[in-house]
Fold this protein.
Amino acid sequence: MRISTINRRQFTQGLCAGAGAILAPRVRADAPALRVNLGTLAPRGSSYFQGLQAMGDQWRAQGVRLVIYPDGTQGSEADMVRLMRVGTLQAGLLTATGLAEIDPAVNVLQAYPLLFRDFDEFSYVLQHMQPMLNSRLEKQGFVPLFWGDAGWLRYFFKERVATVAQFRQAKVFLWSVATEQQRIMREMGWNPVPLETADILQALATGQITGVSVPPIVALVSQFEKRVPYMVDLNYAPLVGACVMRHELWDKLSQAQRDALVPIAQATGADIVRRTHLESDQAVAKMQSQGLTVYPLTAEQRLAWQSEADAFQVRARGRVIPADLHDQIFHLVAEYRAGKRA
């Protein structure tokens, strides 16, 4: 059974079950365990890592041994995708940036700044686009086990940046693989600096960048707030991600193993989302106690940021995002907002 064929009831049951509440038949105790090497940028000890550990504990009962390589020890997400293609890794917990190395269509969920007003809106869009994205990833040889997000990307700066003009003066981090986004940002007068995630702290220390967009929990764990002690109160975009497995490994699993592993993985993803949303707010409060300044925007400033984001979205159509997918996601956002008003 491919992931994309799982019906909505199965998916909902997987999400609603607690990560430790999945009950599934065990394989024979003497059956050899199938090893799955999984790479991720998630820090050791983080909720992402702990969730994967819990998933691995449950997978073991199904004859699957999950070995996690956190902290980017396997390189960048692009590196991890390459390692999965050659079989060194069999799975990965990747952000949309890494997933876009498999199929650029995944960019549709994360490339647009200020597109989503809240997580309910994002969840509605993800739910409707997930079957299509699953199918596209599967055609490239990857099986999505769960989707989710790690909270909002928030902008941290060395100095207070409240206006669009000030933002254009900042040197801001951007993933090095996001080449078309870089071009658009420069066309608009922004100042992106392409880097790998592992290079952010050094770049902040040297002044190579003066701003970075990351989830607050990542900023706290990495102690970014010591270098960029100002955070604008603006939800830039959700940090979207998914856990994927190579089809070569998936095909080695029995039907019973697949039926057991999928709901475990989906419950894990739901638990990671729940925990990271909570920890995001806690991380901001913790950093504030350590000197971080969080400042709101005026209504006029917020409108200017939204106008700038809208201009980026128009330019991205057909360049960062295929035109048909661009139109689809904006249709879904409008559909959700119309239904909410009703």
The mean pLDDT is 90. The two ends are 38 Å apart (CA to CA).
